Amino acid sequence: MKVAIAGSGALGSRFGVMLHDAGNEVTLIDKWPEHIELIRKNGLLVDNGEEKRYVNIPVFYPSEVKETMDLVFVFTKSMGLQEMIEDIKPVIGEHTKIICLLNGVGHETILQEHISLHNIFMGVTLYTASLKGPGHAYFNGTGKVEIQNFVVGEKEELEAKQIVELLNEAGLNTSYSTNVTTSIWRKACTNGAMNAICALLDSNLHQYCSTDQAEPITRQIVKEFVIVANKKGASLNEEEIVDYVLQASKNIGSHYPSMHQDLVQNHRYTEVDFLNGAVARMSKEFEHEAPYNELITQLIHAKEQILEVK
Amino acid sequence: MKVAIAGSGALGSRFGVMLHDAGNEVTLIDKWPEHIELIRKNGLLVDNGEEKRYVNIPVFYPSEVKETMDLVFVFTKSMGLQEMIEDIKPVIGEHTKIICLLNGVGHETILQEHISLHNIFMGVTLYTASLKGPGHAYFNGTGKVEIQNFVVGEKEELEAKQIVELLNEAGLNTSYSTNVTTSIWRKACTNGAMNAICALLDSNLHQYCSTDQAEPITRQIVKEFVIVANKKGASLNEEEIVDYVLQASKNIGSHYPSMHQDLVQNHRYTEVDFLNGAVARMSKEFEHEAPYNELITQLIHAKEQILEVK
Known about the structure:
Chains A, B: Catalyzes the NADPH-dependent reduction of ketopantoate into pantoic acid. The structure is a homodimer of 310-residue chains. With 310 residues, the first copy, chain A, is an alpha/beta fold. Chain A has helices at 10-21, 33-42, 81-87, 107-114, 154-169, 180-201, 205-209, 214-231, 238-252, 258-265, 276-285, 291-306; strands at 2-6, 25-29, 44-47, 52-55, 59-60, 71-74, 97-100, 120-125, 130-133, 136-138, 145-149, 174-176. In chain A, the strands form 2 sheets. In chain A, strands 5-2-1-6-7-8-11-12 form an 8-stranded mixed beta sheet, with helices on both faces. In chain A, strands 4-3-10-9 form a 4-stranded mixed beta sheet. The relative contact order of chain A is 0.11.
């Protein structure tokens, strides 16, 4: 299979290497010059904490790839998805399938502007990875992936199951989901309940969840998420998710959520528009209000501007 | 007149000194040992930027004062009002008038638990002052004061006007207000629109108001304030206040609001429960929701706990 990884940061590298190792013809696509140069020079350095190895995979800037692919996995930041899809148009042929496992909600709105709905496959993953520097991917432990066809149909379901098989052959623990929308919203809701707040409060999850405000804030954020999620075809239960979030936060301990890393630690744009911002925006479609998610989104954007993020 | 200043920090010192200079028998009351000791030893050091002088005024811990006063000005932090009033009960006789010029709303709820409504006088002041250290008050420039009787009545109005006269004799630019509730809410609304947000974003007013989020956030906060304010007898216009706040913030420039000073700079409890928190609380009395003010209050309390403020 000809597979492109559109956005070859941490998680893109992990999927790219595993699909490459399984015998697929993998092309990495990225925009970070130092990252690209080091991979071209030495191969991608893959580090699992115990051993390191260099993996030779072709890597290109988006504009350099002209060959039509069978599969494209998008692993950009959410904010970079639109531009990436526009940049790699030559890669996307009539039969090219796009697989989107990005965190958050609303990516389908971007994808369907450019790609036939039949070729869109949405999913969610619990795999993690990090970059230790340009050209240097770090990952270990396991995870899982759920995937489903975006459009209901026998052909599309069959194709989704073929993608599931391909990922399983590569050692990526993947299942076909009969309701991936619920899985996506559930994960987004968990992230939406904690990430932005920790970024605003400059706290880790443990610090925040030790305050007596964590429960009422979480409850209200989740309530607003669940209303929109269920209108969008997910099936979420407010009480169950609130309990899950509050319990999870106790276990995660001293972890700083990714939005804290982006905003506070690295002064980068956050993905808030695909979490709390998406809920605020989508609520309006149903003539609902989502004031908690709206204010959280506004405060994050204000902070981005105050910090002059890039 | 026998006048007690209950809470002799920056602004209490300013009022105390001016009333003392005008010939009143002023007693300062405070709880800060270093402050009290230095005033007892040297007098209160009064500094207007051009000259310094020591003013000898008696100063006591709350429990030390037994004499009934004619007037008590409360100049505590809002959170300290309840305890102060309880501590100075011996000072408050049948005819003792209490004058409350504190920022924010809801102080009357505390006062009326302990003091006859006829003896409560509410007001608002634009005077400012600061403490350069214990025993060292700094103030210059001018300001103004508005005062009104809490209970409608000829006798009460007459007494309010006598207090106005007393303050004017002391050089404090004071007028009798026919709608002090509007003035109090107006000031609280201005503070509520900006203070807590700047504390949360760790920004000054200029930085915050330069973001494109300041207007929509301000509009929503003010909208919720105005609904409650008008139910409580004030007469505020939403558009006019929003314009005022946004305009004021442009002029104030690089000022860090007091809540930023308390929370971020000094890790002290904030007065949020007498600003945004009061609106969230009072909205419920009218079966209204004030989600922006509610979330802001929750975030400030979470941050207080994370910073382990005192």
